[in-house]
Amino acid sequence: MTHPKLTDIHRRRFLALSASAAAIPSLPSTGWAVGSETYSSMIGDVELTVLSDGSLTLPSGALAPAAPREEFEALLTRTMGSLPETVEAGTNHALLRIGDDLILIDNGSGNKYQPTAGRLLDNLSLNEVDPAAVTKVVFTHAHPDHIWGTLLDDGSLALPNATY
């Protein structure tokens, strides 16, 4: 089967892949890219791999800032047994193989955000993915846990051959 180039992607395919990638943060962390583990699946002719960047400790209210406070607190109490001040949230990133392209959705926290995050490059290596093999990076938004992994400590690009 031939693989279309990313630039030839059609609207329906883009929407399907976007919807799949958008769902990643809501996936349960257990069994889905926790630590060095990964999850891989084929979606048509696209290989989706979910890689962990570690975890973040966040104020519990940061999880759903637009939710009605009483409902949100009741949900946390019901699911966690009490209302925690902070929660530990796993951070996962999608790696898409489409033909000759290896596309990373966001590139993680790097090593300067929280000590429990910044594991993405290690997990790429553990999964035998050379950072130089990544051809494209798509940023969903500019929060630290999505873009601070762009540069290494020496100022060079962590994914040197990618277009951003």
From TrEMBL:
Q: Which residues form the Metallo-beta-lactamase domain?
A: 92-149
Q: Which InterPro entries match?
A: Metallo-B-lactamas (IPR001279), RibonucZ/Hydroxyglut_hydro (IPR036866), TAT_signal (IPR006311)
> Which species is the source of this protein?
Roseovarius albus
* Name of protein: Metallo-beta-lactamase superfamily protein
A Pfam family matched in the record: Lactamase_B
